[in-house]
Specification:
The structure is a single chain. The protein is an alpha/beta fold. The chain has three domains: about 120 residues, P-loop containing nucleotide triphosphate hydrolases (Rossmann fold, 3-Layer(aba) Sandwich); about 150 residues, Winged helix-like DNA-binding domain superfamily/Winged helix DNA-binding domain (Arc Repressor Mutant, subunit A), CATH 1.10.10; about 90 residues, no CATH class. Helices cover about 45% and strands about 15% of the residues. The strands form two sheets. The protein has an eight-stranded mixed β-sheet with strand order 7-6-8-9-10-11-13-12, with helices on both faces. A five-stranded parallel β-sheet has the order 2-3-4-1-5, sandwiched between helices. A hairpin with a 5-residue loop joins strand 8 and strand 9. Pfam families: AAA_14 (PF13173), DUF4143 (PF13635).
Length: about 400
Amino acid sequence: MALRVERAMMETLLDLATMFPAVTLTGPRQSGKSTLVKHAFPGYAYVSLEDPDVRDMAFNDPRRFLERYDSRAIIDEVQYAPELFSYMQGVLDSRDEMGRYILTGSQNFLLLDTISQSLAGRVGILHLLPLSYRELMHSAMCPDLDVFMYTGGYPRLYSTPARPDVFYPAYLSTYVDRDIRRELGVRKVAQFNKFLTVCATRIGQVLNVTGMANDCDVDFHTADNWLLLLEASFIVMRLQPYYKNYGKRLIRAPKLYFYDTGLAANLLGVEDADQLATGVNRRNLFENAVITEIIKQTQAQGRTPKLYYWRDSNRKEIDLVIEKGGQPWQIIEIKSSSTFRYSAFATITDMGDTMGVPTDRRYVVYGGTESIESDQGHVIGLNDIHRIVDQG
């Protein structure tokens, strides 16, 4: 059933347009950026640099382009003409006007580096990821947890009859192939395809780039560069280890996760939600879903969460440490089972006092839907992740 999902970032986007001369919205392709900015700014002119003629004008004659779109304009896929930013600086400085340009881009690696040099202090930056579970809960249809993890959050999967097993292969070939392989010069197509799948098999694991390179028959530097490109394209992300020792030897390598569990499930060969529910990948995909849900909900408020994991050399681990003010603020254990057991609190109870995190900021997120309060902390499901976000 097709539906329209209201994006939680709408209010934040509108607020930033009253604070900055320009606002930039980045995120993966097909995450809903164009739809959101058109809905938020209906009176603005809209131009997409994916149109070859428009891109040619912006690239070769940026002054004329900016004269034509002088104000109250949405410029979509602006990374195709990074030269615009240098000229845009003068336009924005010519008069004190907020919300003059709304810029979108799906290539973070090009966009933000250029903005930091040319538009520093003049642009507010937001990241729009695929739909969150909470956004779907507020819509006309909220999928079952396993259906959500299998389907993922790309809006087209909910606004059209598209199926995940059809959508994701097309998504990879149409968007990821175009951005990463053709435009950034990745030529080892077979190895790169395998690398994507290898990334999916490493969800929730401590990152070993050398091992991944060996699995794909490429050298370390190639694998490391591919990983950077996938991060910059909002496909994968690294969760860094928490850096404070607390008197123990710690694991210092990051963990790997995907920004969307549906894409990861497709790469893993999961054929439907029932297979995911009973398969070996469910635990890691649920952990991935919890982490990305926190990121999505926090970024919708215009904030960037400081997320880490903690593990010592004896494999004692806290799945998620959320930092605030330079100190651990919340600690979270993630359990995919829909049956809660109090033993899940063992590590966060043991380490909570050492880290200075009180029990009201200790959480177990499990695969169920009921909230449970205990003297050791809170037990919540993915449906109540907003409690963690709002407490931050």
